[in-house]
């Protein structure tokens, strides 16, 4: 595109450079479709995962896992610098993935709908560019929620997970608001680098979507790593001290308390990023939470407009966004049969040390569905036939599986153990393809490995 081009026509317009959008754009551009990709920030080519999500967090976690107890501010600074270099490299590669394709044009700037078939993009180098598309895909992701706690938004030291990843000063005292997946992952990581970490969770338990025994075991792991966890905590206010620090006032049933904080990490959930798109001009409906309403084929209320990734209100995982691209691609060039209803046994991992991975139903959810079940739950330290955990000196955690008592179908599993982020995929594959608990129990696995835990774990079903 030249500087004089102020209007573009495209077969496909993608708003947001995330996993689903960029993969769809590259695939169709290689097939000869004219594609325009719009990304609001040059720091986000490639999307959340490689820039502010999965990749940088896991890189920082990996560099923290074998540190001796104590504060490691220099190691932390080095890790932040190395992570920034990694994300910069990946960002450049992702930009080139589309920019080198003749049929693709990348515009950097804010996109706003003009009507159902066109958007305006405010670019820094070309001014306002109008883009019309035969098909439009919105993949603008999500952003952190900042609640209306008195003084919180005015405090100089609050940070979201995105902002924490680029701060190279290790906070001496970190207060984490929220005991969900993001909050716990960051709490564990910063404790490993030596921060004094306190987690404030308003519910009675952390990780509320997990079974109580699994959440309790995760809490034990966290507290053993030095993280203080306060549940049933109601945050009353935040007072900025004027020196870059603040105090967090909260109360529990035990009474009021005040915590000094060098940094406050707000990890109270994420909301779809739709506010600036002017979706009403395009006739695109949103939910009460601000997510774009889609059907099982990811079509919005306008059949030629699709929404992929976090912005459609589905599970906030990169690999789900990747699968979203497959569904849209099938709508545009395939049979149109693929849909979100095809998804079964989608696993996820919370990268504590050791990581917590789960797939399928919890015991609680299975009982709420009225199922007759068998369960097995074992501490890793008690599993004599799993020497791999002892070899790598990672015996913390537990493994749990939920099975249909009548059919022997695997309903779900929670693995809080070394290498669980790899092992959980075996369980998910078995669930998708109808492999029974007995069959998984009696398989032959490499030794010593964490996967062979299924021999013992599934043998303990009752």
Structure description:
The protein has helices at 19-30, 48-51, 54-64, 73-99, 161-164, 181-193, 212-224, 279-282, 318-333, 363-368, 387-391, 420-432, 437-441, 453-457; strands at residues 7-15, 35-39, 104-115, 118-123, 127-138, 142-144, 158-159, 173-177, 196-200, 228-230, 234-240, 246-252, 255-261, 263-266, 270-272, 305-307, 348-350, 356-360, 373-379, 398-404, 410-416. It is globular. The strands form five sheets. Strands 1-2-3-4-5 form a five-stranded mixed β-barrel. It is 30% helix and 26% strand. With 462 residues, it is of the alpha/beta class. The protein has three domains: 7-143 and 271-342, 3-Layer(bba) Sandwich (FAD/NAD(P)-binding domain); 158-268, FAD/NAD(P)-binding domain; 348-460, FAD/NAD-linked reductase, C-terminal dimerisation domain (Enolase-like, domain 1, 2-Layer Sandwich), CATH 3.30.390. Its EC number is 1.16.1.1. Disulfide bonds join 49-54. GO terms for molecular function: flavin adenine dinucleotide binding; mercury (II) reductase (NADP+) activity; NAD(P)H dehydrogenase (quinone) activity; oxidoreductase activity, acting on a sulfur group of donors, NAD(P) as acceptor. InterPro entries: FAD/NAD-bd_sf (IPR036188), FAD/NAD-binding_dom (IPR023753), FAD/NAD-linked_Rdtase_dimer_sf (IPR016156), Pyr_nuc-diS_OxRdtase (IPR001100), Pyr_nucl-diS_OxRdtase_dimer (IPR004099), Pyr_OxRdtase_I_AS (IPR012999).
């Amino acid at each position: 595109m030249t500087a004089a081009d102020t209007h573009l026509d495209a077969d496909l317009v993608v708003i947001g450079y995330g996993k689903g959008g960029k993969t769809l754009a590259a695939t169709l551009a290689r097939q000869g479709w004219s594609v325009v990709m719009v990304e609001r920030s040059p720091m986000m080519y490639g999307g959340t995962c490689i820039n502010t999500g999965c990749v940088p967090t896991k890189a920082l976690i990996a560099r923290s896992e074998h540190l001796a107890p104590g504060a490691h501010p220099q190691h932390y600074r080095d890790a932040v610098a190395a992570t920034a270099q990694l994300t910069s490299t990946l960002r450049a590669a992702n930009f080139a993935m589309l920019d080198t394709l003749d049929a693709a044009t990348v515009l950097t700037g804010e996109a706003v709908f003009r009507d159902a078939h066109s958007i305006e993009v405010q670019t820094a180098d070309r001014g306002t560019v109008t883009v019309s598309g035969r098909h439009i895909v919105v993949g603008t992701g999500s952003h952190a929620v900042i609640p209306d706690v008195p003084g919180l938004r005015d405090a100089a030291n609050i940070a979201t997970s995105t902002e924490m990843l680029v701060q190279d000063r290790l906070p001496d005292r970190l207060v984490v608001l929220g005991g969900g997946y993001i909050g716990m992952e960051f709490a564990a990581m910063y404790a490993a680098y030596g921060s004094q970490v306190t987690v404030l969770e308003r519910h009675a338990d952390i990780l509320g979507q997990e079974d109580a025994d699994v959440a309790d075991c995760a809490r034990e792991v966290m507290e053993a790593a030095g993280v203080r966890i306060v549940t049933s905590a109601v945050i009353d206010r935040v007072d900025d001290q004027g020196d870059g620090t603040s105090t967090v006032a909260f109360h529990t049933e035990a009474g009021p308390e005040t915590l000094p904080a060098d940094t406050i990490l707000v990890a109270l959930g994420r909301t779809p990023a739709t506010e600036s798109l002017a979706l009403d001009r395009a006739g695109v409906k949103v939910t009460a939470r601000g997510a774009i309403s889609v059907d099982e084929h990811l079509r919005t209320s306008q059949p030629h407009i699709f929404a992929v990734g976090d912005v459609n209100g589905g599970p906030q995982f990169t690999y789900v966004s990747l699968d979203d691209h497959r569904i849209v691609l099938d709508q545009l060039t395939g049979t149109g049969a693929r849909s979100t209803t095809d998804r079964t046994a989608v696993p996820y991992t919370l990268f504590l040390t050791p990581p917590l991975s789960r797939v399928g139903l919890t015991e609680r959810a299975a009982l709420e569905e009225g199922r007759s079940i068998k369960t097995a739950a074992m501490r890793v330290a008690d599993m004599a036939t799993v020497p791999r955990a002892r070899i790598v000196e990672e015996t913390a955690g537990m493994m749990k599986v939920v099975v249909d008592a009548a059919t022997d179908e695997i309903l779900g599993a929670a693995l809080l153990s070394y290498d669980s982020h790899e092992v959980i995929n075996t369980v998910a594959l078995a669930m998708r393809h109808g492999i029974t608990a007995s069959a998984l129990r009696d398989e032959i696995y490499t030794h010593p490995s964490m996967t062979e835990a299924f021999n013992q774990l599934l043998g303990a079903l009752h």
